[in-house]
């Protein structure tokens, strides 16, 4: 699935897949999926009839709460039909007169899982945890959301059931004010439906979070979970759950979050020793980060069993240092203001290569990112 997505209104950052062959009922804000039954004799007593009416009423209320998404008709993700035609969205995104390579740069995978590593959805917890985009992008309205979700049934791809496949648009005109809250939209398919939650934040900035475990004390390791709350959205965003840590390392996960300027990002980190009993509660720590444009934040979180660093990565307008190797005899190190681009490389304008004496015949260029605030301040001057 490609595009932007969130989760349920109570569990922002997840996606629920509900089977169409089952009846659903809401109790206390939790989705319960019940197996459907058939009355073989065609007779029901009064109690069963009342229960059936309650189920129908619950379905009606559920449908009103989760309004359908603005799905593009006769468009499929797999056959490339979303890039053809003269619809307003095709003209807006200039899809008709751009090549596929250009569109690939604008794409941002929320999650991408193949048949070899499918999600296992349990009836007791029918949610898929989304770790967030791979990189930050300019998500402005209207946004185009592409999706392709299938249910694995056998060894071959032909045996799979197509849940949903297509594209939908997300626009601020569809969201009633205030925007700073989670809204749920439903995408219906042949064998089920998918609920997607989203929120539109005005005057916001992006922050890429990276988690690093610098020290592990004791033996046996620990389990770690992290969630956060962003500004005016009361719903908790789950970043990851039950990650086992045995030695110092960097988590192979980066999370792109949006924070309203002058707002507060509240981090909720939970740590529990691996050898602890089930009755033992995890140790919780709440820390707040204030949004700062083009700033860098390194937040240490110290527990009895470990020391954890939460870092905010590069953003547009940050400063870095470049140098040539070997340096030879010309000016070999300078500071540059950067612009974040897709892919894992950097581009340097030809007009800035002369001081480095770099002629691109095998010369090596190194990029250095100042970590402390004083280093960043010296780079600016």
UniProtKB/TrEMBL annotation:
- EC id: 2.7.7.6
Name it: DNA-directed RNA polymerase
UniProt xrefs under InterPro entries: DUF6598 (IPR046533), RNA_pol_asu (IPR000722), RNA_pol_N (IPR006592)
- The organism's superkingdom is given as Eukaryota
Q: Which PANTHER family match?
A: OS07G0486400 PROTEIN (PTHR33065), OS09G0442000 PROTEIN (PTHR33065:SF138)
Could you confirm whether the keyword Transferase appears in this record? Answer: yes
Gene3D superfamilies attached to this UniProt entry: 2.40.40.20
Which parts of the sequence are annotated with region: Disordered?
1-57
GO terms (BP aspect):
DNA-templated transcription
**Family to which the UniProt record says this protein belongs:** Belongs to the RNA polymerase beta' chain family.
**Ranges where the RNA polymerase N-terminal domain occurs:** 148-375
GO CC terms, sorted: DNA-directed RNA polymerase complex
- Tell me which UniProt keywords the record has, alphabetically: DNA-directed RNA polymerase, Nucleotidyltransferase, Transcription, Transferase
Q: Which residue stretches does the UniProt record annotate as biased composition, category Acidic residues? A: 42-57
**Which source organism?**
Oryza barthii
> Could you tell me one molecular function GO term of this UniProt entry?
DNA binding
One Pfam family assigned to this protein is DUF6598
């Amino acid at each position: 699935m490609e595009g932007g997505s969130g989760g349920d209104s109570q569990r922002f950052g997840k996606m629920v897949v509900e089977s169409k062959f089952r009846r659903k009922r809401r109790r206390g804000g939790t989705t319960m999926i019940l197996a459907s039954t058939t009355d073989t004799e065609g007779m029901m007593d009064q109690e069963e009839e009342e229960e059936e009416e309650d189920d129908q009423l619950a379905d009606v209320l559920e449908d009103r709460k989760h309004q359908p998404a603005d799905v593009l008709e006769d468009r499929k993700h797999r056959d490339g039909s979303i890039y053809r035609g003269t619809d307003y969205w095709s003209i807006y995104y200039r899809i008709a007169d751009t090549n596929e390579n250009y569109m690939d740069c604008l794409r941002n995978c929320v999650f991408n899982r193949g048949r070899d590593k499918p999600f296992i959805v349990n009836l007791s917890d029918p949610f898929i945890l989304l770790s967030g985009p791979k990189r930050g992008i300019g998500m402005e309205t209207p946004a185009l959301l592409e999706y392709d979700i299938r249910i694995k049934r056998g060894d071959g791809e032909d045996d799979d059931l197509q849940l949903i496949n297509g594209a939908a648009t997300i626009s601020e005109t569809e969201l009633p004010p205030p925007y700073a809250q989670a809204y749920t939209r439903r995408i219906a398919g042949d064998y089920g439906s998918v609920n997607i939650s989203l929120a539109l934040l005005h005057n916001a900035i992006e922050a890429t979070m990276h988690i690093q475990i610098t020290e592990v004390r004791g033996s046996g390791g620990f389990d770690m979970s992290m969630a956060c709350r962003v500004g005016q959205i009361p719903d908790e965003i789950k970043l990851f759950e039950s990650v086992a840590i045995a030695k110092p390392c960097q988590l192979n996960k980066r999370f792109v979050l949006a924070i309203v300027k002058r707002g507060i990002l509240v981090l909720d980190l939970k740590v529990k020793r691996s050898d602890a009993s089930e009755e033992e509660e995890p140790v919780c720590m709440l820390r707040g980060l204030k949004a700062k444009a083009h700033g860098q934040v390194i937040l240490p979180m110290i527990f009895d069993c470990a020391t954890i660093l939460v870092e905010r990565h590069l953003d547009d307008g940050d400063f870095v240092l470049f140098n040539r190797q070997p340096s030879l005899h010309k000016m070999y190190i300078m500071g540059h203001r950067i612009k974040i681009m897709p892919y894992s490389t950097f581009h340097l304008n030809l007009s800035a290569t002369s001081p480095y004496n770099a002629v691109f015949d095998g010369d090596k260029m190194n990029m250095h990112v100042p970590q402390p605030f004083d280093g960043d301040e010296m780079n600016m001057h």
